[in-house]
Amino acid sequence: MQIHELNDYGGSLDSGAYLGIDNGLDTGRVSYAKLMEAINARVDNIIAGEAPSAAEVVDARYGADGVSYASLGDSIRGQASGLKNDINLVAEGDTVAFIDKINYIYGTPVNGKYISYNSGNIGTNASWSYYFPIKIEGGFWYSASFGSAHVAFYDDTLTYISGVLVSSDKRPFQAPSNAAYMAYSYQTADGAQYVERSIEQKVEYVEPRYKKLDRDIALDINHFTKIVEFGKNLFNRWNTIDGKCIDYGDADRLWTNASYCYCPDFIPCKPSTSYTINQVGGIIGEYDADGKATATHNITTASVDKTFTTTADTKYLKVGTQIALKSSFQIEEGSTSTSYEAFTCRFKYGQGGSAVSIITVKQDGTGNFTTISEAIANASDDAIILVYDGTYEESVKTYSKRVHIIGTNREKCILSYSGLDYRNPPLEMAKGSVRNLTIKATNSGTQGERPAYCVHIDNDNEANEQLTFTNVDFINQVHQAVGSGLRAHFTLEFDMCRFRANDQAGLYCHDWETSDESADKTGQKLMVRNCSIVNNSASKSSIMLQSQELVDGGAEATFIGNVVVNKGSDKLIEMVIWQGRSLTNDNFMGSSDWILSDDSALNSTPLINNL
Prior knowledge:
Elements: E1 19-22, E2 27-30, H1 32-47, H2 71-88, E3 103-104, E4 110-115, E5 122-135, E6 141-144, E7 149-154, E8 160-166, E9 173-174, E10 181-187, E11 195-197, H3 215-220, E12 225-230, E13 241-247, E14 250-268, E15 274-277, E16 282-287, E17 293-299, E18 307-309, E19 316-322, E20 331-333, E21 345-351, E22 354-361, H4 372-377, E23 384-387, E24 390-393, E25 396-398, E26 403-407, E27 413-418, E28 427-429, E29 432-442, E30 455-457, E31 466-476, E32 482-485, E33 490-495, E34 498-501, E35 507-510, E36 524-529, E37 532-535, E38 543-547, E39 555-560, E40 563-566, E41 573-577, E42 594-596
Helix pairs in contact: 1-2
């Protein structure tokens, strides 16, 4: 583009002309490129809150051809407002994975002028209007609100690069990689215009208002695969843009209508599948894996079937409806409309392709449940029970379900119950995992037949399963901290835990006690790593293992990096033989059933180091 000079009384004008301005910087002749640079810098300041108003940016004068450029201030004001509004849609820390919502809204156009798409120059035509060039990012895709538009691209010196005649077969369109500015003109009769930046490929939908879990919690569940699960209704009425809708003639563009709204999220759907809306007034777009439109459905009259079938290439839907119907509109899979349900979307986690849910437990009532027991009663296998700060006074029992109980903070998430009743300990569990909790058995409550453990693990549901405790404090004021019995092909693991018992063993474990001598007893494993095991007993050791002395018994213990302390005596570990039974007694600590694995090492007592 050639840069022409414009004097105070006349001269030619194109988008590279000099303008007389009072922009708060210099008064006099400023090139359009410098003007746009200053304008964009000031817009950035406005967005950052460093300027009181967009009116400070520019106060343009009249050009010699009689066209008023006072509207430039309004244009910038509109641009700043649009940017600010879109930026405010996303809070800090939110995750968004839908279309880039920075809309390049130009503001007030100049009527009677147009930008030539094949030269970048300004021409005169009473039927056309144009917007001043705005700053863009090269290489991105853009979509216009109407066809029959001229778009011109310029580099950072406002030198024309190329252009595009926007029509039904050229939406969306891609900016050249070196483009820095874009100008846009359209037929005035088409009404107000805007251009929206699109993206080349779409990603799986992520609910933008979900907050990230605490770092420790995220670390705890990072071995699961994150899955997004949608409810029945695929229209998210809480995330809509009013005054815009999917163009029923071309789903790659938007349609301006004050009575309509649309949700910009790309909702995953199934190809070649029927979907139904519950009332007349919906406009639905179908999109392939790259986010390109495959079909549209204008279901705004009673004569149109409310059920449609997606194409074989369709992977996503975008949904719009009348604003008046927003709170009751529903689109669902299937050929029949059912009762209305609000849009829901939640994270689930799974292993091996199976989805599992997260259930929150908060004592203030803002979670799914207020007690851990309620959460487990309503959980399915592999559910994550996320426990927030508080002391939970309850006896929790879960035998048949494999659940994962995760506290947000070990010191602040406390499961506490009486240690006086063997049959009702703080926790009874057979499979799954527990992390980041303190489990306490207190010297209070009603006396039972005998004292209780903090955790009791001794149930046939353990067979062929695993139970893991990580970063858990076990504190028992009256009895052994943990009492456990193994089963065939069952692994019981403690990692980074603390065992504290009062005048009893910190950890007690026996192998499988079965009356069936012919049963498979192999695969019984106890693993204790990086734990501290402490008691204060003059008569009881800190670790107590018990052997049932069964033929072909097979229990293996692994101890790595543990600190074992007895404040009352030097008794650190002992092996108890069940009711005086005796076989060969040539295995670990004189038992027949237990062996110490070759990996056992780095413990504070050599009794459990297999060196």
